[in-house]
Amino acid sequence: MSWHGLALTVLAGLALVLVFVNIALYGGSRDLQDAINAKQQTINQGMVASRLNQQLIGALANLAGQTGDAEIHNLLAEQGITYTVTPPAGTGGGETGTTTGTTEGGG
Question: Is residue 107 a part of any domain in this protein?
Fold first, then answer.
């Protein structure tokens, strides 16, 4: 076998090794991408749940403010949620204003 044939055989072997390295790296990369996608999905679901929680808290605070329901007020207070009752302009009624944060508790 001439040195040309030997060089071509070595290059073919090297190319084959690189193919297997590429396959291994692709598999590892795919696993990492799957893990990242799962974490991103969890984050997205948490954001949706957070918006839903805010709407629920707002509805509860409005209900408690409008009806004077002490049980709902106490439930919100136990979770660190406070709200203020502000009457609409010119009526002197008991509509609820905006709710303020969930600085403590939250469960």
Answer: no
3-class secondary-structure state, position 84: strand
Residue 13 domain boundaries:
3-102
Cα 25 from chain centroid?
29
When divided into structural domains, the chain yields a total of 1
Task: Evaluate whether residue 31 is within a structural domain.
Answer: yes
State pTM to two decimals. Answer: 0.52
Question: 29 in a domain, yes or no?
Answer: yes
Per-residue pLDDT reduced to its tens digit, 24-72: 999 889 989 999 999 999 999 999 999 999 999 999 999 998 888 899 9
User: What are the φ/ψ torsions at residue 81 (nearest 5 degrees)?
Assistant: -105, 125
Q: Position of tokens 């076998």?
A: 1
